Amino acid sequence: MALTLIILLHSVVSQTLSSESDKVALLALKQKLTNGEPNALPSWNESLHLCGTLGPSLANLTFLRTLVLFNIHLHGEILPQVLDLSHNNLHGQIPIQLTNCSKLEVVNFLCNKLTGKVPSWFGTGSMTKLSKLLLGAKDLVGTIPPSLGSLTSLHNFTLARNHLEGSIPHALAQLSNFKELYLGLNGTLPSNMALAFPNLRNFLVGGNYFNGTFPSSISNITGLQKFDISSNGFNGPIPPTLGSLNKLQIFQVAGNSFGSGETNDLDFLSSLTNLLILYDNRFGGMLPDLIGNLSTHLRWLSMDVNQISGTIPEGIGQLIGLTDFTIIENFI
């Protein structure tokens, strides 16, 4: 039976105190694992120092399945032998040697300083089991390679906080398991979102340079739970068909140019959500009476800086779960 070994190296305030306490813990673990056998794990002894570098000998651990190096202030370039490397200070390009890791299922380089383009070899090599590709690393450039459409097991793809350009490639529509998409790029959204990503659960592309109109086919992604396209350049109406998304929990469209100042701008409010962030747009008209029919789990309703007029419907008092309601800088 293959061994699963998880190595957790925590960052600490006091290196001395942490190293000493960690050494004691490791020696106690050795005692339990080896039943006191004196010749077992000989390098785990009183002279053990929990500091230094991660050597290439890690590549000799043929049964190793999981190596977690989360938030330990690593620096330098990425070693081809090593991988969760999120929240560190790694730089350079993503090494092509990763294509040798045919059993790898998760690549997590979130919150580093990686440079270069998103490698096309992720989809052309032997990494057929890859299910999570998390590359939110600040300084990646270029476009999303269409070859990623070959990663048939991929269900979580993150490219937030980068400097990418172009649009979402149609090749990603081949990914039937695709559920979570977090992007940082510009361009337009596919008009057939429901056909491209029918199983999507989370669609988060806030703070980018997307433009165009609201993709009405979103209404057909019936399992959608989180939707954020805030702080982009979208405009036009939001379709009233969003009411069919009865699993929707978060809906954020703030910081765009949605609406026209007309009376029917808010007809889409029939959606049952827990979080409605609509501020800084051009929504006009009066708040509809049906606002009282929204989910009693609705917690946050933000409608500041729009062109809403009239009075606040009494029905809003039926939203017993509402904790934050803001509607300043309107015509109420």
TrEMBL record:
Subcellular localization: Membrane
UniProt source species: Glycine max
Name of the protein: Leucine-rich repeat-containing N-terminal plant-type domain-containing protein
Membrane topology category: Single-pass type I membrane protein
One Gene Ontology cellular component annotation held by this UniProt entry: membrane
PANTHER family, per database record: LEUCINE RICH REPEAT FAMILY PROTEIN, EXPRESSED (PTHR48053), LEUCINE-RICH REPEAT-CONTAINING N-TERMINAL PLANT-TYPE DOMAIN-CONTAINING PROTEIN (PTHR48053:SF164)
Stretches assigned to the Leucine-rich repeat-containing N-terminal plant-type domain: 20-51
Pfam families listed in its UniProt record: LRR_1 (PF00560), LRRNT_2 (PF08263)
SUPFAM superfamilies reported for this sequence: RNI-like
Keyword tRNA processing on entry: no
Major location category of this protein: membrane
Keyword RNA-binding: no
Keywords: Leucine-rich repeat, Receptor, Repeat, Signal
Matches recorded under InterPro entries: Leu-rich_rpt, LRR_dom_sf, LRR_N_plant-typ, Plant_RL_S/T_kinase
Signal sequence interval, chain numbering: 1-18
